[in-house]
Amino acid sequence: MSVNAATRPTRSLVPYVHLTMAMVIVGSSMPVGKLMVAALPVHLALTLRFVLACAMAWPLLLWLEGPPRLTARTWGVMAAQALCGSYLFNYFVLKGVCLTGAAAAGVAAATTPACMALAGWLLLRERPGRRSLWGVACCALGVAAVTLCGNGDAGSTASGPWTMALGMGLVLAGVAAESLFLLLRKTVREPLSALALSSILSAYGLIFVLPMGIPEAMALDWTGVPMRAWWAVGYYGAVFTVAAYLFWFAGVVRVNAATAGAFTGVMPISAVALSALLLGEPLTAWHIGGCALVLGGIWLSR
Fold first, then answer.
1. pLDDT at 253 over 90
2. What is the pLDDT of residues 55-111, one digit of tens each?
3. SS3 185
4. Global confidence as pTM
5. Cα-flanking dihedrals φ and ψ of residue 44, to 5°?
6. Domain limits of the chain?
7. Angstrom distance (rounded) from CA 259 to CA 254
8. Distance between CA 213 and CA 209 in Å, rounded?
9. Residues contacting residue 108 through CB under 8 Å, at least 6 positions apart
10. Alpha helix locations (H) across 102-256?
11. What is the rounded CA–CA span in Å between residue 139 and residue 146?
């Protein structure tokens, strides 16, 4: 989710509600994603998610806005964005959440603003200020704190500090891919609505995952898939892929960038709380301390 915003302020609470809802949904994708990939292979799960998202978003886009008219360069940039944000981010996060708890994965995924500052420094030579550097350090300490909780997450497929570290490493690889997605967004010159962006990224995401999803679909025993996995797929496709974007961009255009960035702090809180409610994962002092450090890092990096 990008935190770019228009500069016109608002006194209405509506955009704040929209931003909060968007980040609650993004945080909920961690426990819901874990439920989904517990019963379905990752590429097949993503294929089903993008099929559902395209079936919802594209008819609505064509009805409300018509077909998108973009230059060949923009279509290429959007393809690169989808590779980073729609495919690699989701693949790494879903693989990582299988090895670590959804709460820990949510804390790690929340480091995106700090990773953006670091990526801008390394790739675009945008030298960060002292606050941003402290923000990166706080986020790194927060992720390290959660990683040190070892096998304290219920429901992980394996236990031990190395497994936990591998899972967190995969989630952070997804964060790096998401940061590239957001940096690429800056190179798109044409204005794109939230609906158009969600539709195009879903279509490209489907193209990327379909070659791996079809063999997994052919090998799967469909009769053994529990109903909760189908609910998770529906939520991932309809709510996380479509509704979260619509909520975010409905709010982000009415607040400044710093305010929008601050609302990304809702995401790890949502992930930690819903992991406890939906999956029964224990909340340890490591989770609380790591979440607090990441929230501080987000505030410093905005």
1. no
2. 999 999 999 999 998 999 999 999 999 999 899 999 999 999 888 878 888 888 877
3. helix
4. 0.82
5. -70, -40
6. 21-301
7. 10
8. 6
9. 96, 143, 146, 168, 171, 172, 175
10. 102-109, 112-124, 130-147, 161-185, 194-219, 227-234, 244-252
11. 11
